[in-house]
Amino acid sequence: MKIAFLGLGRMGSAMASRLAQDGTLSLVVWNRSPDKAKPLTDLGARAAADPAAAIEGAEIVMTSLLDDASVEAVFHEGSPALAAMRPNAIHLGLTTVSPDCGNRLQALHAAHATRYVSGPVLGRPDAAAKGALVQFLAGEASAFAEVEAACKAFAVRTVALPGPAGAANSQKLCVNFFLACQLEAMSECYTLGDALGVSREALAGFFAQIFAHPGFKDYAARMNQRQGDGANGFAMTAGLKDVRLIRDAAAKVHCPVDIADVVASKMEEAVAKGMGGQDWSAVQEISRLRAGLSSQAG
Questions:
Q1: CA distance 94 to 147
Q2: With contact defined as beta carbons under 8 Å apart, do 180 and 246 qualify?
Q3: 136 - beta bridge partners?
Q4: Are 13 and 42 in contact, with CB atoms under 8 Å apart?
Q5: DSSP 8-state assignment for residue 235
Q6: I want to staple 7 with a disulfide (CB 3.0 to 4.6 A). Which of 12, 141, 270, 286 is the partner?
């Protein structure tokens, strides 16, 4: 099976690396910054000069780009990338995009005799590198089996959802809303604890115990130690993009999400202070700054 993988950011590189190590697949990669392809070519993948060249002859095209605009800059009516897709080929969107974007892409591909599946994933780059992501699938159901067979390289579990492609994006936004709220709650709890002089270690132990998922335990430790390094994390800019998508989706169905407004304001302040590349759990530093405590925020 030939797979074209477009977008080699932190998550994209981790997922593509897992695919490159699967000896049953032929992988071609593309990224706007060509230097990011070298680790993949070292693993046996081939680098393409542009999306259309990567897509030519591929059975599945995976996109791990930044947002709605970046995906639709590649796939739109009359685009070279869309024209390069062979009939019945699959476009699997791994990016967290808006539900509307997912539905537009499904309609675009249906009109072109190709298939689209929204397949956003849960987990950070370190989980992707271990093949431990969870993935939601929605859209063209006839493509699910092929997608699942390919994605087993980086996803330990896939959850197929009924409805149009945007259903998977809605599901991902709801989960990310929960995660963002928990980060904000831990952020304020650690900050209040420091202001009151309580033990951060005791709080970290409580969080690690109450949140059994390894990801939550990791966040509890990160926030206790105030480790905002984004090298293997989820960048603040990406987190802010997702929170904005959550707010937009909620507004369309007239659903107040007050905590999302608080989280967004703190993430916006963090990005403005040069923390965009840090892990989104570093939002704690804004809570500390607002509380008048020592902060690593600029």
A1: 11
A2: yes
A3: 159
A4: no
A5: B
A6: 12
In contact, 220 and 204? CB cutoff 8 Å:
yes
Domain layout of the chain by residue ranges: 2-164, 170-290
Structure tokens, 35: 């230097």
pLDDT by position in tens, the chain (length 298): 999 999 999 999 999 999 999 988 999 999 999 999 999 999 999 999 999 999 999 999 999 999 999 999 999 999 999 999 999 999 999 999 999 999 999 999 999 999 999 999 999 999 999 999 999 999 999 999 999 999 999 999 999 999 999 999 999 999 999 999 999 999 999 999 999 999 999 999 999 898 888 888 888 888 999 998 888 789 999 999 999 999 999 999 999 999 999 999 999 999 999 999 999 999 999 999 999 999 999 7
- pTM for the predicted model, two decimal places: 0.90
Helix locations, the chain, DSSP H = 10-20, 38-42, 51-55, 68-74, 80-84, 99-111, 125-129, 144-151, 166-196, 200-210, 214-225, 236-252, 258-272, 284-290
User: Domain 2-164's class?
Assistant: alpha beta
SS3 state at 158: strand
